[in-house]
Write a structure and sequence with these properties.
The protein is α/β, with parallel strands linked by helices. The chain folds into two domains: 140 residues, Periplasmic binding protein-like II (D-Maltodextrin-Binding Protein, domain 2); 115 residues, Periplasmic binding protein-like II (D-Maltodextrin-Binding Protein, domain 2), CATH 3.40.190.10. Helices cover 30% and strands 20% of the residues. The chain has eight helices and 14 strands. A seven-stranded mixed sheet has the order 1-3-2-6-13-7-14. Strands 10-9-11-8-12 form a five-stranded mixed sheet. The protein has a two-stranded antiparallel sheet with strand order 4-5. The longest helix has 18 residues. The protein starts with 31 loop residues before the first strand and ends with a strand.
């Protein structure tokens, strides 16, 4: 199947008739949004809540129309590499940019505090559980975690080496649910490179783009993703994807929710403090709630 046609996700609305240069199958810039030259505010964020962050930043720009925002939504590992080096090569494009605001899991921001790049960070949002992403119509009749054992079911998961945070969250939750249901998931005990590629397909770098593409390419039948990601895929690709809950219904999964915090890098520049206030507002809590996430109380 052809590469998925992702919608435009910049903080500013797309300008009609603006030239675009991309080839979907080789476009590696989906998680770099906006114009780094004209932007007065730069945000680095982990990527799995990119759909809610986009709407949040658009609402911020609507309130402060003199401010353009450049933001990236990559795995924390990539964002930290850019922060530490001050640059990133994207194909043949050399990008030199530093953030004013950083959003990521608490452990990542604690690293920034330890390195003297951030003074303090605050709880922001969290996931509401994991689901099983399937193709529209659920052709393999995958109804819950017990179906992951079937020989005819191929599974996609984020990479345990390049996306440790998301993989660990997914694996921990699957282990907990499998113990409660009495279905041991042996493949979770395999080290990278020791897994059966006919049964389990790991992503490479950015699972929130790779998971739906893997299903669309018929390389997997089901993918373990956060509920808010599956909700996004179902909304923008309604004819391609659906999802089921691992236990067959909505409910407490007994897993630690994936949380991300926010904080200023250095003094946050002219606009970082304003954005931080916005991120912690009731308006943004409502935006994230509409995308299947919740505030950290």
């Amino acid at each position: 199947m052809a590469a998925l046609d992702w919608p435009y996700e910049g903080a500013l609305p797309a300008v009609q008739d603006t030239p675009r240069f991309l080839q979907a199958g080789s476009n590696i810039c989906l998680d770099f949004h906006g114009d780094p030259i004209r932007a007065k505010l730069t945000v680095f964020s982990d990527g799995n809540h990119h759909m809610a962050l986009q709407e949040t930043l658009r609402s911020f720009v609507a309130a402060y129309p003199m401010v353009d925002v450049f933001y990236l939504t990559t795995p924390p590992r990539v964002a930290m590499q850019v922060l530490r080096s001050g640059c990133l090569n994207i194909g043949n494009l050399h990008l030199s940019v530093q953030p004013h605001v950083f959003i990521s899991p608490p452990a990542v921001l604690e690293q920034m505090v330890a390195e003297g790049r951030m003074t303090v960070h605050q709880p922001f949002m969290r996931s509401t559980g994991i689901v099983l992403l399937v193709k529209k119509g659920n052709p393999k009749s995958i109804l819950g975690i017990s179906d992951l054992h079937r020989d005819d079911v191929r599974l996609f998961m984020s990479n345990p080496v390049t996306e440790t945070v998301s993989y660990q969250a997914y694996a921990d939750c699957l282990r907990n649910l499998s113990m409660r249901s009495g279905h041991a998931l042996d493949f979770l005990d395999h080290q990278p490179g020791q897994h059966d590629p006919a049964k389990l397909d790991y992503g490479e770098t950015i699972h929130h783009r790779e998971a739906p593409q893997c299903l669309a390419d018929d390389r997997a039948d089901v993918a373990v993703v956060y509920f808010h990601l599956a909700l996004r895929y179902k909304r923008i690709f309604p004819n391609l994807f659906d999802f089921v809950w691992p236990t067959g219904s909505v409910g407490d999964q007994g897993c630690d929710a994936s949380q991300f915090n926010c904080g200023l890098v250095g003094n946050g520049g002219v606009w970082g403090g304003k954005l931080l206030e916005h991120l912690l507002s009731d308006e943004v809590a409502s935006i994230y709630r509409s995308h299947g996430l919740e505030s950290v109380s």
